[in-house]
Amino acid sequence: xxxxxxxxxxxxxxxxxxxxxxxxxxxxxxxxxxxxxxxxxxxxxxxxxxxxxxxxxxxxxxxxxxxxxxxxxxxxxxxxxxxxxxxxxxxxxxxxxxxxxxxxxx
Length: 106
Prior knowledge:
The protein is mainly beta. Helices cover 4% and strands 41% of the residues. The chain has 1 helix and 9 strands. The strands form 2 sheets. The protein has a 6-stranded antiparallel sheet with strand order 1-3-4-9-6-7, with no helix packed on it.
């Protein structure tokens, strides 16, 4: 039996134009969360000689709702992320400009 999952879109916080260049969604089932963040239209904001990774995202962060987990694990590389209501994209996009993160509320 397949169940529909709640889909949340997440707000972005930034003082820079770069926040418009990320799409992020979360799927929630019971206490398990999957968060997907993907960079887009990068050639408009990041110079050609600079990779769209790490420090290129400056202060851009995902703002997480209060009931979201604080601990996240990258589904591909296994890197751990801690979010105290914000998830900095300079760490999430540290190695690649897209991420699938898993979290669980205990």
